[in-house]
């Protein structure tokens, strides 16, 4: 499932390429024909992300809400203008040390693309293997023979300007809302540290967690508690905090809950800047490039079941929690 950093990157693409432009909307697969007709021909005025949900605003107080869910993704084609922050990513602003402060990447001029396309500027969302991908002519580094390109696969909605095209496939939710319903939807979500960087959001998160008997491993995935965290970030945050995922929220020390929030804010910012869920610390130049290129070298515990813990050597455990796979170290997180 695309996590919060991906959705923020998508909205930055829309801010740079669509906001201020008249947009033509269609539904090549037909499932969103009525909704597309409502926004067709309107100028895009805003693009916002809240956790895993995005909201595109159009003239006339009309909003398009998209939740990518497990398999959704946006594909961009045409003359893509890169956001300044995203353009400086792929190794240029990447890692943290154990205190959480930002460091320059070991090789700040290197652009390292992930082997799975996680940091692609052309396709953001679900992993490549889960759905039909772009045509060869659309892939990174190539040019289009014609514009706009023919839709590929089941495109729920296509947004088009004179220079750029955005195709949405496989979302869990795609609907047109008025401002009242947008506010109602956002009000149900937990805080997002990129939108709420101040103490009030930290206090809100801490207060909710400290009242709950629910295991912390479930609370971090509850979008009503905190917005944007998915399976990868859950596993990595808990390991970085050396916290047992089964610990009830109300039994987690207050300072540790606060540190979880601060660490999520750090990792989310790195994810937006680099396009990758980089959670490793203090890497030398060679290890950093390897981690940026491959998820296998980028995480402490995620997808490492049966492999020795990078810290203590105990085999990483895989279990199911909340109908999702949970990875953790039974020694470091005892």
UniProtKB/TrEMBL annotation:
Signal peptide: none
Keyword Metal-binding: yes
PANTHER family: ENDONUCLEASE 8 (PTHR42697)
Record's keyword annotation contains Secreted: no
Keyword terms: DNA damage, DNA repair, DNA-binding, Glycosidase, Hydrolase, Lyase, Metal-binding, Multifunctional enzyme, Zinc, Zinc-finger
The species this protein was found in: Agromyces lapidis
Protein name (Swiss-Prot/TrEMBL): DNA-(apurinic or apyrimidinic site) lyase
Similarity comment: family membership: Belongs to the FPG family.
Cofactor(s) the record lists: Zn(2+)
